[in-house]
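Quick review question:
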């Protein structure tokens, strides 16, 4: 088996999983990338765009566009930090109130995807993903 075949299949599966999640989140006007930011902020509190960029391993312009869209849709606000040059992104009250409902949609999706694996396979898969960092 060629390395490129493994990586290609892996990328195809990730795209498929993300598309399925996008379909489920559509009723909330969210996409998986926005959910990732929402999850990160909910778990860690307000963060700078740089911190979000580093967490998600994407280019800064991608985060800028995604955060702008989330701001327009009422999911996040920008707040000035102690140093006025630094801005933080934080979830709005509405986003916090709706978080659990959206988290349930994501959890159901994840359960459906991973239900095809045994507990042993899940642990092996997790360890393999850690090695790919």
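Suggested answer, residue by residue:
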């Amino acid at each position: 088996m060629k390395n490129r075949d493994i990586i290609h299949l892996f990328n195809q599966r990730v795209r498929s999983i993300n598309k399925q999640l996008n379909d489920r989140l559509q009723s909330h006007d969210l996409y998986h990338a926005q959910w990732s930011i929402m999850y990160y902020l909910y778990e860690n509190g307000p963060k700078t765009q740089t911190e979000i960029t580093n967490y998600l391993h994407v280019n800064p312009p991608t985060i800028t566009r995604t955060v702008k869209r989330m701001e327009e849709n009422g999911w996040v606000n920008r707040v000035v930090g102690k140093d006025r040059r630094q801005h933080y992104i934080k979830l709005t009250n509405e986003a916090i109130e709706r978080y659990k409902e959206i988290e349930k949609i994501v959890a159901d999706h994840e359960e459906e995807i991973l239900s095809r694996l045994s507990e042993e396979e899940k642990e092996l898969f997790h360890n393999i993903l850690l090695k790919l960092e």
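Why it works: The mean pLDDT is 94. The CA atoms of residues 53 and 62 lie 8 Å apart.
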